[in-house]
Design a protein that fits this description.
It is a single chain. This protein is mainly α. The chain folds into two domains: 1-296 and 374-518, Cytochrome c-like domain (Cytochrome Bc1 Complex, Chain D, domain 2, Orthogonal Bundle), CATH 1.10.760; 301-373 and 537-547, no CATH class. The protein has helices at 59-85, 93-105, 133-137, 194-199, 215-222, 227-234, 247-251, 269-291, 301-306, 316-326, 415-420, 472-485, 523-533, and strands at residues 8-12, 25-31, 34-35, 168-170, 175-177, 339-340, 364-365, 377-378, 440-441, 540-541, 546-547. The strands form five sheets. The chain has a three-stranded antiparallel beta sheet with strand order 1-2-3, with no helix packed on it. The chain has a two-stranded antiparallel ribbon with strand order 4-5.
Amino acid sequence: MKPPGKQHYYLRKKVRMRTGNLKLLVPLLVIGGILATVAVHSHVVSAANDEPQQPSLSPAAQNEIADVESRIDRYEASYLKEFQAAPPAQNDQATNEIRLGALLLYDKTLSVKRNEACAFCHMPETGFTGPVSTLNETTGSYPGSVRSRFGNRKPPSYSYATTAPVLHYDTTQSNFYGGNFWDGNATGTRLGNPSAEQAQGPPDNPLEMGFTDFACFVYRASRAPYSSLAEAVWGSQIFAIAWPSNTEDACTQPGGHYDPANPTVHLSALDRGRAQTAYDQLTLSIAQYEAHPPVNRFSSKFDFYLAGDKRAQLSHDELRGWELFRTKGNCNSCHLDGTQNNGPTPRPPSAKPASSAPNGTEPVAANLESLFTDYTFANLGVPSNATLPFLAESRPDSYGFTANPAGSNYHDAGLGAFLQSAANPNKAWAQYADHFNGAMQTPTLRNVDLRPGLPSHAFVKAYMHNGYFKNLKDVVHFYNTRDKYQLHPGQTCAGKRLNIDCFPPPDYAQNLDMSVGDLQLTDQEENQIVDFLQTLTDGYNPASGQVEVPQQP
């Protein structure tokens, strides 16, 4: 896809949940087809050469990041206290492995600068996705251990991610199913567990935790105060590796991607194999934590409603939103709600509120969990997020690493790019790559509205793979009106309202999913779908009728 030429787009000023009011639009210069913004000191343009400078964090973002880091420390201290109070011999296998996974997730020393835990992008109070409102509202993506390096996508949630099958291609449906990550690159092919392979992505990603060798993760874990727990879970051989004397020095140096032909940590072939096995086992423990009930709680208002709890009655608008979700909105074709529409109701109708139901029936829980995803991939035509700092990372940083040589000409090809890459573990899949350029995995809608401070929406969440949208109303409106209001390259939003009657061009215009885009929903119907989506938030207390957001220890 060729990038558009110079043009003007428009950026909405700070807004919360949209209710149809006009948004304030600020024209900003587009260079190479990409919007230049100074929202968080990240896309400042040099007048001398029209090239973006390296990203940096605003004071507001730095303050919020420091608060998140402090909360992570408290989580880690809490899990360490549990470990110390109940030695492994006193617990069953599941308890030990879950506790080990938690300690690994909240340990920020498992990064090149000892400052970024896995949890930095995945905290409980946001449904295990990005916990920094300032970043969600501005950059969309998050900085790595090297704070001037940002990823190319917003953090996905790992809540319910462990329910995904190993990535596979369905020849009848002509689509891929399963895997983890937006582009499915944690396939599960090698370990049989996509979530464990997902946990192996950030540690040696230079844009995230930043090690140049995955062995550094194992080395740091072997020196952690909970290393004996890893040995109790996986055996005393897990850390039986002859580490070179300069390992710690090597593991503190940021650089580029791990190179198997020239590893940073020089191990014998046998010890390299041991390090890989230990890495596999540690990340399997992380996946075990991610699979346990406090992460995947199935405790939303919708869950209680399906269970027949009379205290969890869906309102008229919520029920109408569910009906639209299943019918006119076409949401349920990918975000499966796990209910059946026909057949006998397994409990008296009086167990539920009296109201009309989708398709004239009373939907009830089927033998499928309400996961609200089918794990497939589609290109919805989401606009480029011009505020991604990744677009400015086109020059070598102070460590000589260039994250994005394409600069503002970068376009995220999603699954298609992965299928064409050397990381693809199944070369038979490469033949389908062109058909999946721009395609991203269908995420679960569970906890899509979970955030600190509910029912207030002062905390901003970002949506879609690149964080372009900042509220659910805009997402639903895009699904509804994309085909009517989305621009073609070269067009501008001049005189129009961004994300109301004007959407910038898609990042990838090929392979668009045409099952959405012209749904003919009214504004009220869009709002009703949003009302329904907000019933999918875990932590609902039927007694109080409120969501109890997870609290730090």
